[in-house]
Amino acid sequence: MILRLYSWNVNGFRSVITKGFWEWFAHADADVVFLQEVKADEEQIAEEHRYVAGYQCIWNPATKKGYSGTACYTRLDPIAVRLDLPEKRFAGEGRLIELEFPWFIVFGVYFPNGQMSEERLRYKLEYYDAFLNYAQDVRRRKPVVVCGDFNTAHQEIDLKNPKQNEDRSGFLPIERAWIDRFIAHGYVDTFRALHPDARDAYSWWSFRFGARRRNAGWRIDYFFVSQELVAAVRRAWMEPEVMGSDHCPVGLELEVA
């Protein structure tokens, strides 16, 4: 059986549903769709957008209105649903949805952005470390899939202008080193594994300076799988032609028994 998973930072759910989201959703025909930066809670969303035939909708909004938040639509029945990391200091921003299925555990994560201040950069790095520790604990039970907006481009090939961005959060050596460490723990960047030499392949573009038109972007949205699942990976891709957000959807297909 082939499972199709998607992740998309929609930069505002109430905005993206006016920009072709449901047409994309119907065409995607996904088993699970994780959304990041939904910037809304369930009470702000009309029922027809929360109750979609054949899908269960899971919502994890931030406490702060109009900020952060994640959501998920799944037509697979999860064995368990968990929200946020176990450490209470990382709760309140709605950054994580964890679903357990018979074959694996999948995380949809909106990792923090470190550009606002040194304090937020420190929070981002601490969140990274806490997530890795938790993922390793969970992995003792089942293989792991991790998707979402990591807010870091890993290598120079993953952004248009690496030299100009070496001192900017999102491409700092310390952030990139964490992704190195994540990979060293046995997590595989599925897109890069299948497309090792793909250039100009990005998932986020600034709204400024016509960046998307010029394809001056960054690849900061990923699907990682733990090493045990690599043999199940069939496809990993991005859909830069899909508009509605400053990010585009990214996808993964896994074959499971």
Summing up helix and strand content along with how strands pair, one would put the structural category as alpha+beta
Quaternary structure state of the chains depicted: single chain
CATH architecture: 4-Layer Sandwich
Strand order of the largest sheet: 3-4-2-1-14-13
- Terminal CA distance reads 6 Å
Q: Which residues sit in consecutive blocks of at least 5 with pLDDT less than 50?
A: none
Number of domains: 1
In short:
The protein has 257 residues and is α+β, with helices and mostly antiparallel strands. It is built from 6 helices and 14 strands. The protein has helices at residues 13-16, 21-28, 47-50, 118-139, 173-184, 190-194; strands at 2-9, 32-36, 56-60, 70-74, 80-83, 96-100, 105-110, 144-149, 187-189, 204-205, 217-218, 221-226, 233-238, 250-255.
Please tell me about this protein's structure.
- The protein has 257 residues and is α+β, with helices and mostly antiparallel strands.
- The protein has a single domain (2-255), classed as Endonuclease/exonuclease/phosphatase (Deoxyribonuclease I, Chain A, 4-Layer Sandwich), CATH 3.60.10.
- It has six helices and 14 strands.
- It has helices spanning 13-16, 21-28, 47-50, 118-139, 173-184, 190-194; strands at residues 2-9, 32-36, 56-60, 70-74, 80-83, 96-100, 105-110, 144-149, 187-189, 204-205, 217-218, 221-226, 233-238, 250-255.
- The strands form three sheets. It has a six-stranded mixed β-sheet with strand order 3-4-2-1-14-13.
- Strand 7 (105-110), helix 4 and strand 8 (144-149) form a beta-alpha-beta unit.
- The protein is globular and about 45 Å long.
